[in-house]
Amino acid sequence: LTSVVIPTQPFEGQKPGTSGLRKKVAVFMEKHYTENFIQCILDAQGEKTKGSTLIVGGDGRYFTTQSINIIIRIASANEVNKLIIGRRGLLSTPAVSSLIRTHKCLGGIVLTASHNPGGIRNDFGIKYNIDNGGPAPDQMTNDIYELTNKITQYKITPDLDCDFQQTGVQHFEVDGREFVVEVIDPVEDYVQLMKNIFDFEKLRVLLSGSETQPPFNVLIDSMNGVTGVYVKRIFLEELGSNQDSAVRIIPLDNFGEIHPDPNLTYAKDLVDKVQEDTRYDFGAAFDGDGDRNMIIGKNAFFVTPSDSLAVIANNLDCIPYFRNHGVHGFARSMPTAAAVDRVAQKLKKEMFEVPTGWKYFGNLMDAGRLSLCGEESFGTGSDHIREKDGVWAVLAWLSIIEHKKMSVEDILKEHWKIYGRNYFTRYDYEECENEDANKMMDHLESFIADSSVIGKSFTNCGKTYLIKQADNFSYVDPIDHSEAKNQGIRILFEDGSRLIYRLSGTGSSGATIRIYVDSYEKTDTTADAQVMLKPLVNVGLQISKLKEFTGREEPTVIT
Ligand code: VG1
Ligand code: CO
């Protein structure tokens, strides 16, 4: 086989966002569009591309097969030595992260738009992960973006046909060099990793029951995403959970026309089932690519991701991995409520607050300063890999439940009793006009730039909030000292309450405004979060003038 050089021209807007490049499928289908981006990913690695091995796979959404064919043909022409591809193109994001580490690869190309809807009319995405298994840092995604703005040609092996529906190794000769494609089972490596972290014997007894104890009944919802293949193997086969304890476990390329995002709005099916059927002790859902998780208890008792992180942090001794490796620091993204900070303080662990996006945790983990971290957006994970990990989070919760012999609700109530409670909510306004959203953010910029706002008070529903600090969050990485600026407008109040405003970096059209609202209560810990936070939400709407700028009366999603 011989490679050829194809002339091309730059496309506008191939700028990776919070987590890769996400666009409508139709955009990726434009002639040369995907080819350009793949060529730029490889070019950004410089000489390291030659002779390298890369992992390739994703959540199986529409355009996965087409994009993998493109990757195979472009990688081979650019002297990549080997691609390791998940069978049928399937690999969860955490599985890619693990495989990069297990096989000591240069990196991996993850084909996913995560929780965004899939199918021919919806979103596709491409993300590059580096040799530590984590998302490419800002420096590299900026390099990729710059290359996309000046690309003039790409190299491709047009006649290379490679099937990846069955496992096995295939050898090709391209321009006189050997090129190898190894198609692997998508779950094998990941299952081994989980077995090394958790006590599968104990979890098996919990989920399948014993002579003295009925099974702990779980309902796991893969939302037609890639976790289906992992859930089937781990929960049904390895841990002996009942056949009907997992639903929507066949990955579909359009996710069955649902929004594969595990929260109370989009995973309502699961919430309703667990609420209606009191036999269920526990429910969990994952997003399309398997890095997000939602945890609910009996009667659909909801665990916020910020609390989930704090509870896991407080109970790491239930998990063999942490008993063996020790526990270093904890971290959360800035908008995530500070429940875990209180655990860190009590356990005397280092605590880090980073910008939104998993890429900011990687350096701290590589430096051995971070063991456990999370985001309010249903992401939880540890230093076993460099991505958030939905299945891992569920196994962590089940290990805690097994060890403490307590229900989800009782575990939370006990936690709040000790630490107090961080009430949290997030309002999302999806697909606003870009111009309106930018104007609102400009207005907030000028609001915080005016130093006279410090000490100003806002009263709503009888509650008064006094501004203590207002800024746009910036972060200096403690390891490589790189700086990330403009990561969200923060308004911090005297009583510890916070309002945070950001524009999403994962959408594919329009602007999504996120408002994060949280407050801390030492003793009043069992109220409804929406009721508790309503006055602060109102203050948040008043300060931002969101309704005036966007014309939106209500948020699209509340989490
Ligand atoms: C969102 C979340 C962020 C998360 C990111 C990727 O980003 O807020 O916490 O890391 O999605 O998650 P943004 O910029 O839209 O707020 V996933 O599961 O899409 O890889
Ligand atoms: Co995801």
UniProtKB/TrEMBL annotation:
One of its GO terms (molecular function) is magnesium ion binding. GO terms for biological process: carbohydrate metabolic process. Pfam families: PGM1_C_vert_fung, PGM_PMM_I, PGM_PMM_II, PGM_PMM_III. Residues 14-154, 189-296, 309-419 form the Alpha-D-phosphohexomutase alpha/beta/alpha domain. It comes from the Eukaryota. Its main location: cytoplasm. Transmembrane segments: none annotated. It is found in: Cytoplasm. Its cofactor is Mg(2+). Keywords: Cytoplasm, Isomerase, Magnesium, Metal-binding, Phosphoprotein. Its EC number is 5.4.2.2. GO terms for cellular component: cytosol. It catalyses: alpha-D-glucose 1-phosphate = alpha-D-glucose 6-phosphate. Belongs to the phosphohexose mutase family. This is phosphoglucomutase (alpha-D-glucose-1,6-bisphosphate-dependent). It comes from Pyrocoelia pectoralis.
